[in-house]
Amino acid sequence: MNTECFIEPSRQLPVIATDVFIAGAGTSGFIAAIAAARNGANVVLVEKLPVPGGTLTNGGIGFNAYYSQETKEGPHSRRIVGGLPYELTQRLEKTGFSTGFTFLEDDHYHIPYRFMADHEAFKAVASEMLMESGVRVLLQTFLANVVYEGKTIKAAIIENKDGRCAVVAKQYIDATGDGDIARIMGLQQLDLWQDYDKVCGGPTGLVFGMAGIDYEKAVRENAGAFRVLSKKSASDADHLSMERYTLAHAMNPSRYPGLNSLDINYFTSFQGLHKGEATYINNSKAPKIDAVKTEDYSLAELTMRSRIMKIAIALRKEVPGFEQAYLNWASVQLGVRASRITLCDHMMSQQEISDATRFDDEIGLYAFHDFAPKHEELFTVPPGFYGLPYRMLLPVGADNLFMTGRSVTFDINAHMSTRNTVCCMIMGQGAGTAAALCARKDIPSRNLNYSELRDALVNGCVILD
Ligand SMILES: Cc1cc2nc3c(=O)[nH]c(=O)nc-3n(C[C@H](O)[C@H](O)[C@H](O)COP(=O)(O)OP(=O)(O)OC[C@H]3O[C@@H](n4cnc5c(N)ncnc54)[C@H](O)[C@@H]3O)c2cc1C
Hints:
This protein is α+β, with helices and mostly antiparallel strands. The chain has helices at about 25-40, 55-60, 85-95, 120-135, 180-185, 195-200, 215-220, 255-260, 295-320, 350-355, 410-420, 420-440, 450-460, and strands spanning about 15, 20-25, 45, 100-105, 115, 135-140, 140-150, 150-160, 165-170, 170-175, 190, 205, 210, 225-230, 240-245, 270, 280, 325-330, 335, 340, 360-365, 385-390, 400-405.
Protein backbone atom coordinates (compact mmCIF):
# COMPACT_ATOMS: atom_id res chain seq x y z
CA MET A 1 0.00 0.00 0.00
CA ASN A 2 1.34 3.47 -0.93
CA THR A 3 2.10 5.63 2.11
CA GLU A 4 1.72 8.92 0.25
CA CYS A 5 -1.51 10.79 0.96
CA PHE A 6 -3.97 12.18 -1.53
CA ILE A 7 -6.64 14.51 -0.17
CA GLU A 8 -9.98 13.73 -1.79
CA PRO A 9 -11.93 16.94 -2.38
CA SER A 10 -15.11 17.13 -0.28
CA ARG A 11 -18.45 17.09 -2.05
CA GLN A 12 -22.16 17.32 -1.32
CA LEU A 13 -24.02 14.00 -1.37
CA PRO A 14 -27.69 13.24 -1.95
CA VAL A 15 -29.39 11.83 1.16
CA ILE A 16 -31.65 8.83 1.68
CA ALA A 17 -33.39 9.00 5.07
CA THR A 18 -34.52 5.74 6.65
CA ASP A 19 -35.07 3.99 9.99
CA VAL A 20 -32.67 1.09 9.59
CA PHE A 21 -29.63 0.76 7.32
CA ILE A 22 -28.05 -2.65 6.70
CA ALA A 23 -24.73 -3.29 4.98
CA GLY A 24 -24.57 -6.75 3.40
CA ALA A 25 -27.54 -8.74 2.05
CA GLY A 26 -25.85 -12.03 2.92
CA THR A 27 -27.07 -14.89 5.09
CA SER A 28 -27.76 -12.75 8.15
CA GLY A 29 -28.27 -9.39 6.39
CA PHE A 30 -31.21 -10.28 4.15
CA ILE A 31 -33.01 -11.88 7.10
CA ALA A 32 -32.24 -8.83 9.28
CA ALA A 33 -33.74 -6.55 6.62
CA ILE A 34 -36.97 -8.56 6.36
CA ALA A 35 -37.27 -8.75 10.16
CA ALA A 36 -36.79 -4.99 10.51
CA ALA A 37 -39.35 -4.27 7.78
CA ARG A 38 -41.90 -6.68 9.27
CA ASN A 39 -41.50 -4.80 12.55
CA GLY A 40 -42.57 -1.59 10.90
CA ALA A 41 -39.24 0.02 9.96
CA ASN A 42 -38.26 1.65 6.70
CA VAL A 43 -35.18 -0.27 5.66
CA VAL A 44 -32.33 0.32 3.22
CA LEU A 45 -30.24 -2.77 2.44
CA VAL A 46 -27.05 -2.52 0.38
CA GLU A 47 -25.09 -5.40 -1.12
CA LYS A 48 -21.93 -5.32 -3.21
CA LEU A 49 -22.91 -8.45 -5.20
CA PRO A 50 -25.72 -8.62 -7.77
CA VAL A 51 -27.64 -11.23 -5.70
CA PRO A 52 -28.76 -11.54 -2.09
CA GLY A 53 -27.76 -14.51 0.07
CA GLY A 54 -24.02 -13.98 0.58
CA THR A 55 -22.09 -17.06 1.58
CA LEU A 56 -25.25 -19.14 1.78
CA THR A 57 -25.62 -18.55 -1.96
CA ASN A 58 -21.92 -18.63 -2.68
CA GLY A 59 -20.57 -21.46 -0.65
CA GLY A 60 -22.50 -22.04 2.53
CA ILE A 61 -24.18 -25.03 0.92
CA GLY A 62 -25.94 -26.50 3.97
CA PHE A 63 -28.70 -25.06 6.12
CA ASN A 64 -26.99 -26.14 9.33
CA ALA A 65 -29.16 -26.75 11.32
CA TYR A 66 -32.66 -26.45 12.77
CA TYR A 67 -32.78 -29.29 15.30
CA SER A 68 -31.19 -29.87 18.69
CA GLN A 69 -28.48 -32.47 19.13
CA GLU A 70 -29.40 -36.01 20.04
CA THR A 71 -27.74 -36.74 23.36
CA LYS A 72 -27.13 -40.18 24.84
CA GLU A 73 -28.97 -39.11 27.95
CA GLY A 74 -31.92 -37.71 25.97
CA PRO A 75 -34.25 -35.98 25.46
CA HIS A 76 -34.69 -36.61 21.77
CA SER A 77 -33.93 -33.99 19.18
CA ARG A 78 -36.57 -31.35 18.45
CA ARG A 79 -36.78 -28.37 16.12
CA ILE A 80 -35.42 -25.35 17.98
CA VAL A 81 -35.31 -22.79 15.15
CA GLY A 82 -38.44 -21.05 13.90
CA GLY A 83 -39.00 -17.54 12.60
CA LEU A 84 -37.67 -16.36 9.26
CA PRO A 85 -34.99 -19.08 8.90
CA TYR A 86 -37.73 -21.72 9.17
CA GLU A 87 -40.16 -19.79 6.95
CA LEU A 88 -37.43 -19.83 4.29
CA THR A 89 -37.30 -23.65 4.38
CA GLN A 90 -41.08 -23.88 4.08
CA ARG A 91 -41.08 -21.64 1.04
CA LEU A 92 -38.18 -23.54 -0.51
CA GLU A 93 -39.98 -26.81 0.11
CA LYS A 94 -43.00 -25.52 -1.80
CA THR A 95 -40.85 -24.83 -4.87
CA GLY A 96 -39.86 -28.52 -5.04
CA PHE A 97 -36.19 -27.56 -5.24
CA SER A 98 -35.25 -28.63 -1.72
CA THR A 99 -34.70 -31.89 0.12
CA GLY A 100 -37.23 -30.94 2.80
CA PHE A 101 -36.21 -31.93 6.32
CA THR A 102 -34.57 -35.28 5.72
CA PHE A 103 -33.86 -37.84 8.43
CA LEU A 104 -30.20 -38.91 8.48
CA GLU A 105 -29.58 -42.06 10.45
CA ASP A 106 -26.43 -42.05 12.61
CA ASP A 107 -25.54 -38.52 11.62
CA HIS A 108 -22.09 -37.82 13.04
CA TYR A 109 -23.15 -34.29 14.00
CA HIS A 110 -25.95 -35.90 16.07
CA ILE A 111 -28.51 -33.70 14.31
CA PRO A 112 -31.03 -36.11 12.80
CA TYR A 113 -32.93 -33.81 10.44
CA ARG A 114 -31.12 -31.81 7.78
CA PHE A 115 -32.28 -29.51 5.01
CA MET A 116 -30.70 -28.52 1.70
CA ALA A 117 -31.84 -26.65 -1.38
CA ASP A 118 -30.67 -25.69 -4.83
CA HIS A 119 -28.68 -22.47 -4.80
CA GLU A 120 -30.74 -20.98 -7.66
CA ALA A 121 -34.01 -21.70 -5.83
CA PHE A 122 -32.58 -20.11 -2.69
CA LYS A 123 -31.62 -16.96 -4.61
CA ALA A 124 -35.12 -16.79 -6.11
CA VAL A 125 -36.95 -17.28 -2.79
CA ALA A 126 -34.68 -14.83 -0.94
CA SER A 127 -35.38 -12.29 -3.70
CA GLU A 128 -39.14 -12.84 -3.43
CA MET A 129 -39.11 -12.48 0.35
CA LEU A 130 -37.16 -9.22 0.07
CA MET A 131 -39.49 -7.79 -2.58
CA GLU A 132 -42.59 -8.70 -0.55
CA SER A 133 -41.15 -7.12 2.61
CA GLY A 134 -40.89 -3.64 1.12
CA VAL A 135 -37.19 -3.34 1.96
CA ARG A 136 -35.40 -0.85 -0.30
CA VAL A 137 -32.69 -3.05 -1.81
CA LEU A 138 -29.63 -1.60 -3.52
CA LEU A 139 -27.55 -4.31 -5.18
CA GLN A 140 -24.10 -3.74 -6.65
CA THR A 141 -23.73 -1.10 -3.98
CA PHE A 142 -20.74 -0.80 -1.69
CA LEU A 143 -20.69 0.51 1.86
CA ALA A 144 -17.77 2.91 1.47
CA ASN A 145 -17.71 4.90 4.70
CA VAL A 146 -19.60 5.84 7.85
CA VAL A 147 -19.81 9.23 9.49
CA TYR A 148 -20.02 9.03 13.29
CA GLU A 149 -19.79 11.23 16.36
CA GLY A 150 -18.55 9.46 19.45
CA LYS A 151 -20.53 6.23 19.74
CA THR A 152 -23.30 7.28 17.35
CA ILE A 153 -23.36 6.69 13.61
CA LYS A 154 -24.81 9.65 11.71
CA ALA A 155 -24.72 8.32 8.15
CA ALA A 156 -23.52 5.47 5.96
CA ILE A 157 -21.86 6.49 2.72
CA ILE A 158 -22.61 4.14 -0.14
CA GLU A 159 -21.40 4.03 -3.73
CA ASN A 160 -22.91 2.49 -6.86
CA LYS A 161 -23.58 3.32 -10.53
CA ASP A 162 -25.72 6.27 -9.44
CA GLY A 163 -22.72 7.73 -7.66
CA ARG A 164 -22.11 8.34 -3.98
CA CYS A 165 -24.90 8.86 -1.46
CA ALA A 166 -25.42 9.28 2.30
CA VAL A 167 -27.96 7.04 4.02
CA VAL A 168 -29.08 8.72 7.24
CA ALA A 169 -30.65 6.13 9.53
CA LYS A 170 -31.53 5.77 13.19
CA GLN A 171 -30.04 2.28 13.52
CA TYR A 172 -27.33 0.46 11.54
CA ILE A 173 -26.59 -3.23 11.10
CA ASP A 174 -23.16 -4.47 10.04
CA ALA A 175 -23.90 -7.70 8.18
CA THR A 176 -20.82 -7.55 5.96
CA GLY A 177 -19.26 -10.61 7.61
CA ASP A 178 -15.99 -8.68 7.75
CA GLY A 179 -17.18 -6.02 10.21
CA ASP A 180 -16.66 -3.21 7.69
CA ILE A 181 -18.73 -0.61 9.60
CA ALA A 182 -17.05 -1.50 12.89
CA ARG A 183 -13.63 -1.21 11.25
CA ILE A 184 -14.36 2.26 9.87
CA MET A 185 -15.53 3.35 13.33
CA GLY A 186 -12.27 2.05 14.78
CA LEU A 187 -14.03 -0.41 17.12
CA GLN A 188 -11.94 -3.17 18.62
CA GLN A 189 -11.53 -6.10 16.26
CA LEU A 190 -9.55 -9.32 16.41
CA ASP A 191 -8.30 -11.47 13.52
CA LEU A 192 -9.57 -15.04 13.53
CA TRP A 193 -8.25 -16.21 10.16
CA GLN A 194 -4.90 -17.50 11.51
CA ASP A 195 -6.77 -19.78 13.91
CA TYR A 196 -8.67 -21.23 10.95
CA ASP A 197 -5.31 -21.80 9.29
CA LYS A 198 -4.17 -23.86 12.22
CA VAL A 199 -7.28 -25.96 12.71
CA CYS A 200 -8.71 -26.50 9.24
CA GLY A 201 -6.23 -25.42 6.61
CA GLY A 202 -7.47 -21.89 6.04
CA PRO A 203 -10.45 -19.58 6.30
CA THR A 204 -11.56 -19.61 2.65
CA GLY A 205 -13.00 -22.03 0.11
CA LEU A 206 -14.59 -22.03 -3.32
CA VAL A 207 -17.57 -24.35 -3.54
CA PHE A 208 -18.46 -25.71 -6.99
CA GLY A 209 -20.54 -28.40 -8.66
CA MET A 210 -20.23 -31.08 -11.34
CA ALA A 211 -22.79 -33.06 -13.32
CA GLY A 212 -22.60 -36.18 -15.47
CA ILE A 213 -21.38 -38.48 -12.67
CA ASP A 214 -22.11 -42.19 -12.45
CA TYR A 215 -22.14 -42.60 -8.65
CA GLU A 216 -22.91 -46.34 -8.73
CA LYS A 217 -19.82 -46.89 -10.85
CA ALA A 218 -17.74 -44.58 -8.64
CA VAL A 219 -18.67 -46.55 -5.52
CA ARG A 220 -18.21 -49.89 -7.31
CA GLU A 221 -14.92 -49.23 -9.07
CA ASN A 222 -12.98 -47.11 -6.59
CA ALA A 223 -12.56 -50.05 -4.19
CA GLY A 224 -13.29 -48.52 -0.82
CA ALA A 225 -11.93 -45.06 -1.57
CA PHE A 226 -15.25 -43.63 -2.79
CA ARG A 227 -17.73 -44.13 0.04
CA VAL A 228 -21.39 -43.42 0.60
CA LEU A 229 -21.82 -41.28 3.74
CA SER A 230 -25.59 -41.14 3.55
CA LYS A 231 -28.06 -41.65 0.76
CA LYS A 232 -31.65 -40.49 0.80
CA SER A 233 -32.90 -40.64 -2.73
CA ALA A 234 -35.94 -38.53 -3.49
CA SER A 235 -39.03 -40.49 -2.52
CA ASP A 236 -41.48 -38.27 -4.35
CA ALA A 237 -41.53 -35.64 -7.06
CA ASP A 238 -41.73 -32.77 -4.56
CA HIS A 239 -38.32 -33.30 -3.01
CA LEU A 240 -34.71 -33.55 -4.10
CA SER A 241 -32.33 -36.31 -3.01
CA MET A 242 -29.76 -35.85 -0.25
CA GLU A 243 -26.82 -38.04 -1.17
CA ARG A 244 -23.42 -37.58 0.43
CA TYR A 245 -20.19 -39.23 -0.65
CA THR A 246 -16.53 -38.91 0.16
CA LEU A 247 -13.39 -39.72 -1.80
CA ALA A 248 -10.31 -40.51 0.29
CA HIS A 249 -7.87 -39.44 -2.40
CA ALA A 250 -5.09 -38.55 0.07
CA MET A 251 -5.06 -42.10 1.40
CA ASN A 252 -4.42 -43.44 -2.09
CA PRO A 253 -1.67 -41.23 -3.53
CA SER A 254 -0.56 -43.70 -6.21
CA ARG A 255 -4.12 -44.21 -7.39
CA TYR A 256 -5.08 -40.51 -7.54
CA PRO A 257 -1.75 -38.75 -8.27
CA GLY A 258 -3.33 -35.78 -10.05
CA LEU A 259 -5.74 -35.03 -7.21
CA ASN A 260 -2.98 -35.43 -4.66
CA SER A 261 -0.71 -33.02 -6.50
CA LEU A 262 -3.30 -30.26 -5.89
CA ASP A 263 -3.41 -28.41 -2.59
CA ILE A 264 -6.89 -29.55 -1.60
CA ASN A 265 -8.53 -31.06 1.48
CA TYR A 266 -7.60 -34.49 2.67
CA PHE A 267 -10.97 -35.88 1.56
CA THR A 268 -13.09 -34.63 -1.28
CA SER A 269 -16.74 -34.44 -0.22
CA PHE A 270 -19.67 -34.52 -2.61
CA GLN A 271 -23.31 -33.72 -1.94
CA GLY A 272 -25.79 -34.62 -4.64
CA LEU A 273 -29.31 -33.24 -4.81
CA HIS A 274 -29.97 -34.47 -8.36
CA LYS A 275 -29.23 -37.71 -10.15
CA GLY A 276 -25.64 -37.83 -11.35
CA GLU A 277 -24.80 -34.46 -9.88
CA ALA A 278 -22.29 -33.39 -7.27
CA THR A 279 -24.30 -30.31 -6.48
CA TYR A 280 -21.80 -29.12 -3.90
CA ILE A 281 -18.12 -30.05 -3.86
CA ASN A 282 -16.49 -28.55 -0.82
CA ASN A 283 -12.89 -29.70 -0.91
CA SER A 284 -11.31 -26.66 -2.38
CA LYS A 285 -8.94 -25.56 0.31
CA ALA A 286 -7.88 -22.11 -0.78
CA PRO A 287 -4.63 -20.24 -0.20
CA LYS A 288 -4.15 -19.16 3.42
CA ILE A 289 -5.02 -15.51 3.33
CA ASP A 290 -6.32 -12.62 5.35
CA ALA A 291 -9.53 -12.23 3.32
CA VAL A 292 -9.87 -8.50 4.03
CA LYS A 293 -6.63 -7.71 2.19
CA THR A 294 -7.91 -7.05 -1.31
CA GLU A 295 -4.79 -7.99 -3.24
CA ASP A 296 -4.37 -11.28 -1.34
CA TYR A 297 -8.06 -12.04 -1.71
CA SER A 298 -7.94 -11.33 -5.45
CA LEU A 299 -4.99 -13.64 -6.01
CA ALA A 300 -6.68 -16.37 -3.95
CA GLU A 301 -9.86 -15.95 -6.01
CA LEU A 302 -7.95 -16.27 -9.30
CA THR A 303 -5.98 -19.25 -7.99
CA MET A 304 -9.16 -21.03 -6.99
CA ARG A 305 -10.90 -20.44 -10.35
CA SER A 306 -7.99 -22.23 -11.96
CA ARG A 307 -7.78 -24.91 -9.26
CA ILE A 308 -11.38 -26.09 -9.46
CA MET A 309 -10.89 -26.76 -13.18
CA LYS A 310 -7.76 -28.78 -12.37
CA ILE A 311 -9.71 -30.73 -9.74
CA ALA A 312 -12.42 -31.45 -12.32
CA ILE A 313 -9.83 -32.63 -14.87
CA ALA A 314 -8.16 -34.89 -12.28
CA LEU A 315 -11.52 -36.36 -11.20
CA ARG A 316 -12.36 -37.15 -14.82
CA LYS A 317 -9.01 -38.74 -15.47
CA GLU A 318 -8.50 -40.70 -12.26
CA VAL A 319 -11.89 -41.58 -10.79
CA PRO A 320 -14.00 -44.23 -12.53
CA GLY A 321 -17.57 -42.91 -12.73
CA PHE A 322 -16.40 -39.36 -13.46
CA GLU A 323 -15.31 -39.88 -17.08
CA GLN A 324 -18.23 -37.82 -18.44
CA ALA A 325 -18.41 -35.35 -15.56
CA TYR A 326 -18.19 -31.62 -16.16
CA LEU A 327 -18.14 -28.42 -14.12
CA ASN A 328 -21.66 -26.99 -14.02
CA TRP A 329 -21.31 -24.08 -11.59
CA ALA A 330 -19.05 -22.36 -9.09
CA SER A 331 -19.93 -19.79 -6.47
CA VAL A 332 -19.71 -16.17 -7.54
CA GLN A 333 -17.01 -15.34 -5.05
CA LEU A 334 -14.48 -17.10 -2.88
CA GLY A 335 -16.17 -17.94 0.42
CA VAL A 336 -14.75 -16.64 3.69
CA ARG A 337 -15.28 -18.45 6.98
CA ALA A 338 -13.62 -15.89 9.22
CA SER A 339 -11.87 -12.55 9.04
CA ARG A 340 -12.29 -9.66 11.51
CA ILE A 341 -14.25 -10.40 14.67
CA THR A 342 -15.70 -7.36 16.44
CA LEU A 343 -15.62 -7.15 20.23
CA CYS A 344 -19.21 -7.22 21.53
CA ASP A 345 -20.75 -6.95 24.99
CA HIS A 346 -20.87 -10.74 25.14
CA MET A 347 -18.49 -13.04 23.27
CA MET A 348 -19.79 -16.61 23.11
CA SER A 349 -17.36 -19.19 24.47
CA GLN A 350 -17.11 -22.88 23.70
CA GLN A 351 -17.65 -23.61 27.38
CA GLU A 352 -21.06 -21.91 27.19
CA ILE A 353 -21.90 -23.96 24.10
CA SER A 354 -20.74 -27.25 25.65
CA ASP A 355 -22.64 -26.45 28.86
CA ALA A 356 -25.93 -25.69 27.08
CA THR A 357 -25.88 -22.23 28.67
CA ARG A 358 -29.05 -20.17 28.65
CA PHE A 359 -29.21 -16.37 28.96
CA ASP A 360 -31.79 -13.92 30.25
CA ASP A 361 -31.81 -11.91 26.99
CA GLU A 362 -32.02 -14.61 24.32
CA ILE A 363 -32.74 -13.95 20.64
CA GLY A 364 -32.77 -17.64 19.71
CA LEU A 365 -31.60 -21.20 20.37
CA TYR A 366 -28.98 -23.16 18.44
CA ALA A 367 -27.14 -26.48 18.37
CA PHE A 368 -25.06 -27.43 15.29
CA HIS A 369 -21.27 -27.65 15.73
CA ASP A 370 -18.95 -28.22 12.78
CA PHE A 371 -16.03 -29.51 14.85
CA ALA A 372 -17.85 -31.69 17.36
CA PRO A 373 -17.74 -34.93 15.32
CA LYS A 374 -13.92 -34.76 15.55
CA HIS A 375 -13.84 -33.54 19.18
CA GLU A 376 -16.64 -35.19 21.17
CA GLU A 377 -16.23 -32.79 24.10
CA LEU A 378 -17.53 -29.94 21.91
CA PHE A 379 -21.02 -31.42 21.72
CA THR A 380 -23.61 -29.69 23.89
CA VAL A 381 -24.79 -31.51 27.00
CA PRO A 382 -28.53 -32.25 27.42
CA PRO A 383 -30.91 -30.83 26.34
CA GLY A 384 -28.60 -30.53 23.29
CA PHE A 385 -28.87 -26.82 22.48
CA TYR A 386 -27.76 -23.44 23.83
CA GLY A 387 -29.05 -19.87 23.91
CA LEU A 388 -27.87 -16.85 21.90
CA PRO A 389 -27.92 -13.63 23.96
CA TYR A 390 -28.94 -10.23 22.57
CA ARG A 391 -25.68 -8.80 24.00
CA MET A 392 -23.59 -10.77 21.47
CA LEU A 393 -24.92 -8.43 18.76
CA LEU A 394 -23.87 -5.18 20.48
CA PRO A 395 -20.38 -3.91 19.58
CA VAL A 396 -18.46 -2.27 22.37
CA GLY A 397 -18.15 1.46 21.63
CA ALA A 398 -21.26 1.92 19.46
CA ASP A 399 -24.78 2.91 20.50
CA ASN A 400 -26.76 2.45 17.30
CA LEU A 401 -24.94 -0.44 15.61
CA PHE A 402 -25.63 -4.18 15.60
CA MET A 403 -23.23 -6.91 14.44
CA THR A 404 -24.47 -10.18 12.93
CA GLY A 405 -23.24 -13.41 11.39
CA ARG A 406 -19.69 -14.65 11.17
CA SER A 407 -18.19 -11.38 12.43
CA VAL A 408 -18.99 -12.13 16.08
CA THR A 409 -17.54 -14.82 18.43
CA PHE A 410 -13.77 -14.93 18.75
CA ASP A 411 -13.28 -18.34 20.36
CA ILE A 412 -12.44 -20.52 17.33
CA ASN A 413 -14.33 -23.53 18.68
CA ALA A 414 -17.41 -21.46 19.47
CA HIS A 415 -17.15 -19.81 16.03
CA MET A 416 -17.29 -23.31 14.50
CA SER A 417 -20.87 -23.31 15.78
CA THR A 418 -22.10 -19.72 15.57
CA ARG A 419 -20.78 -19.01 12.05
CA ASN A 420 -23.07 -21.65 10.51
CA THR A 421 -25.78 -20.43 8.21
CA VAL A 422 -28.85 -20.96 10.37
CA CYS A 423 -27.19 -19.39 13.41
CA CYS A 424 -26.27 -16.37 11.26
CA MET A 425 -29.93 -16.10 10.20
CA ILE A 426 -31.09 -16.28 13.84
CA MET A 427 -28.74 -13.39 14.65
CA GLY A 428 -30.10 -11.55 11.60
CA GLN A 429 -33.68 -11.84 12.83
CA GLY A 430 -32.59 -10.73 16.32
CA ALA A 431 -30.67 -7.72 15.04
CA GLY A 432 -33.33 -6.65 12.50
CA THR A 433 -36.14 -6.90 15.06
CA ALA A 434 -34.18 -5.01 17.73
CA ALA A 435 -33.06 -2.32 15.27
CA ALA A 436 -36.67 -1.69 14.23
CA LEU A 437 -37.83 -1.38 17.86
CA CYS A 438 -34.94 0.95 18.74
CA ALA A 439 -35.62 3.06 15.65
CA ARG A 440 -39.32 3.32 16.55
CA LYS A 441 -38.48 4.62 20.03
CA ASP A 442 -35.33 6.44 18.93
CA ILE A 443 -33.27 4.84 21.68
CA PRO A 444 -29.74 3.37 21.86
CA SER A 445 -29.50 -0.40 21.43
CA ARG A 446 -28.69 -1.02 25.10
CA ASN A 447 -31.83 0.82 26.29
CA LEU A 448 -34.15 -1.63 24.59
CA ASN A 449 -36.39 -3.40 27.07
CA TYR A 450 -35.79 -7.14 26.66
CA SER A 451 -39.39 -8.18 27.30
CA GLU A 452 -40.45 -5.95 24.40
CA LEU A 453 -37.83 -7.56 22.16
CA ARG A 454 -38.87 -11.01 23.30
CA ASP A 455 -42.53 -10.29 22.48
CA ALA A 456 -41.58 -9.08 18.99
CA LEU A 457 -39.41 -12.15 18.40
CA VAL A 458 -42.12 -14.52 19.56
CA ASN A 459 -44.51 -12.63 17.30
CA GLY A 460 -42.07 -13.37 14.50
CA CYS A 461 -42.30 -17.11 15.36
CA VAL A 462 -38.82 -17.29 16.91
CA ILE A 463 -38.51 -20.28 19.26
CA LEU A 464 -37.20 -19.20 22.67
CA ASP A 465 -38.30 -22.09 24.91
C1 LIG B 1 -16.57 -22.58 1.62
C2 LIG B 1 -17.56 -22.47 2.74
C3 LIG B 1 -18.40 -23.52 3.04
C4 LIG B 1 -19.31 -23.42 4.07
N1 LIG B 1 -20.17 -24.46 4.31
C5 LIG B 1 -21.16 -24.31 5.23
C6 LIG B 1 -22.15 -25.33 5.39
O1 LIG B 1 -22.14 -26.35 4.72
N2 LIG B 1 -23.13 -25.12 6.32
C7 LIG B 1 -23.19 -24.00 7.09
O2 LIG B 1 -24.12 -23.85 7.89
N3 LIG B 1 -22.26 -23.02 6.96
C8 LIG B 1 -21.26 -23.15 6.04
N4 LIG B 1 -20.34 -22.15 5.87
C9 LIG B 1 -20.40 -20.97 6.77
C10 LIG B 1 -21.53 -20.01 6.41
O3 LIG B 1 -21.90 -20.14 5.07
C11 LIG B 1 -21.14 -18.54 6.68
O4 LIG B 1 -20.46 -18.40 7.89
C12 LIG B 1 -22.37 -17.64 6.73
O5 LIG B 1 -23.10 -17.81 5.53
C13 LIG B 1 -21.96 -16.19 6.92
O6 LIG B 1 -23.09 -15.36 6.95
P1 LIG B 1 -22.93 -13.78 7.18
O7 LIG B 1 -24.27 -13.19 7.12
O8 LIG B 1 -22.09 -13.53 8.36
O9 LIG B 1 -22.04 -13.31 5.95
P2 LIG B 1 -22.26 -13.48 4.40
O10 LIG B 1 -23.33 -14.45 4.07
O11 LIG B 1 -20.92 -13.73 3.82
O12 LIG B 1 -22.80 -12.05 3.98
C14 LIG B 1 -22.03 -10.89 3.95
C15 LIG B 1 -22.54 -10.06 2.79
O13 LIG B 1 -22.03 -8.74 2.86
C16 LIG B 1 -21.62 -8.32 1.58
N5 LIG B 1 -20.63 -7.26 1.79
C17 LIG B 1 -19.43 -7.38 2.39
N6 LIG B 1 -18.83 -6.19 2.47
C18 LIG B 1 -19.67 -5.29 1.91
C19 LIG B 1 -19.60 -3.89 1.71
N7 LIG B 1 -18.57 -3.16 2.14
N8 LIG B 1 -20.64 -3.28 1.09
C20 LIG B 1 -21.71 -4.01 0.67
N9 LIG B 1 -21.82 -5.33 0.84
C21 LIG B 1 -20.82 -5.96 1.47
C22 LIG B 1 -21.09 -9.59 0.94
O14 LIG B 1 -21.04 -9.52 -0.46
C23 LIG B 1 -22.08 -10.64 1.45
O15 LIG B 1 -23.19 -10.80 0.60
C24 LIG B 1 -19.39 -22.22 4.84
C25 LIG B 1 -18.55 -21.15 4.56
C26 LIG B 1 -17.64 -21.27 3.51
C27 LIG B 1 -16.75 -20.10 3.21
